[in-house]
Amino acid sequence: MSFGKIYGLPNNPRTLVTLIVAKAAGLDVELVETGAGKFSDEYVSLFPNKKIPAFIGADGLVLSEVIAIAIYFAQQKEDIGLLGKDKAEFALILKWLSLTNMEAMPQLAGWFRPLTGMAPYNKKAVEKCAEDYGIYASIYEKYLTSHTYLVGERLSLADIFVVTLFSRGFAFVFGTAWREAHPALTRFYTMVINQPVMLAFFKPTAFIDEPVKYTPPKKEPAPKKEAAPKKEAEEEEDKPAPKPKHPLEALGASKVSLDAWKRQYSNEDTRPVALPWFWENFDASEWSLWKVKYKYDDELTLTFMSSNLIGGFFNRLSASTKFLFGCLVVYGENNNNGIIGAFLVRGQDYVPAFDVAPDWESYEFTKLDFASTEDKAFVEDMWAWDKPVVVADGTAKEIADGKVFK
To answer: Are residues 309 and 357 in the same domain?
Structure first.
């Protein structure tokens, strides 16, 4: 009897985690290929954020988020030991799942996705992600130098999760030099990826020599011009206009300089001086205001890690510095916090400004009405940081930290 349906893609690492754990637990689950624009009406009604993987059980259980699904599957057959031998080991497993999902993977994705054409390419952003991922890789390397597994003395969900998500790194950017600098992590990856339950979904390990290189898209050939006398052609030939480096450059310069506002915000008192200046000079025909909220607050743990998540996101937004200003704050306390903020965006669409960051889809965007008293107050509170954040149930939560994108 089928245990339920997994919605996702067979080559998606997070989907693979759920399928591997289901196999280890002996569960009969059906993969319904969903993603890359293939979303049924039924799926969207149950999972409006259109994220994979998602699960619908034969008993009617509706579940999203890879960590939740994987744990639920592993709980169905506890004697396989994927969740550890006691509560302490289970907590350690959760630590590695959270660190990998929330901290290391966004950096790794920001490194390999632009190089492989999965996301827009920005050289500085890619280099920064590679550097930041190196910090996290050193954590795994140091630990695995003296440990065979991440938790305990046998294969756990932490091992499956880390190796499956890091497999993209070994496929695209972890060349010979990188592996030589990380022998313990490479040994661990090789050991886990060759476990029988993993080989059901992965081919035997084949390492790359060099990281994949970015290849710019080929330019379309210019249409041929009609023949003209040589002298006339030399005098009258029009040079093609250079393509804008950023899609928003096509909008041209705005009447009020974004830099002027950034100077006001940086140098003047926020509420008494800077904010009145902003509203006096704000031009709704050239700029728009957006509420930006992190989608996965339930996966956030320590507030400083949530703040680091914002910092990484802002680093990857660097290509849009000329077209964006905003703040994201962390509200609440450790193991019960969220991320929310407000942004000023050039133009009326948020996508061209934000999709330079590979993890932009981890946030939801809601357009704000500058004429609305409520929306205006929200923007001011997010940029001033001097009032608690009121969440959906009406509870006021203090701001623990935050960052300014300018």
So the answer is: yes
Q: Which of 97, 125, 96 is nearest to 113 (CA)?
A: 125
CATH code at position 28: 3.40.30.10
Query: How high is the pLDDT of residue 325?
Result: 94
For residues 325 and 256, the answer to whether their CB atoms sit within 8 Å is no
192 three-class SS:
helix
Task: State the pairing for strand pair 29-33/363-368.
Answer: unpaired
Q: d(Cα 51, Cα 116) in Å, to the nearest integer?
A: 21
Give the up-direction half-sphere exposure of residue 283: CA atoms within 13 A in the CB hemisphere: 11
Per-position DSSP letters for 344-395, written without gaps between them: EEESS-SHHHHTTSTTGGGEEEEEE-TT-HHHHHHHHHHHH--SPEE-TTS-
Q: What is the mean pLDDT of residues 274-286?
A: 93
Tell me the H-state helices in 84-241. Answer: 87-98, 105-115, 123-144, 157-172, 176-181, 183-193, 196-199, 230-236
* 236-265 per-position pLDDT tens digit: 444 554 545 678 888 888 888 899 999 988
Indicate which CATH number applies to the domain containing 154.
1.20.1050.10
Report yes or no on whether pTM surpasses 0.90: no
Alpha-carbon 217 to chain mean position: 24
What letter represents residue 295's amino acid?
A: K
Task: DSSP letter for 183, please.
Answer: H
Same domain, 349 and 312: yes
* Secondary structure (DSSP) of 305-359: HHHHHHHHHHHHTGGGGGGEEEEEEEEEETTEEEEEEEEEEESS-SHHHHTTSTT
As a whole number, the mean pLDDT across the chain is 88
Contact 357, 121 (CB under 8 A): no
Same domain, 37 and 144: no
For residue 57, with 0-12 CB atoms within 10 Å meaning exposed, 13-18 middle and 19 or more buried, which class applies? middle
Number of domains the chain is built from? 3
Q: What is the rounded distance in angstroms from the CA atom of residue 121 to the CA atom of residue 324?
A: 18
Higher pLDDT, 319 or 164: 164
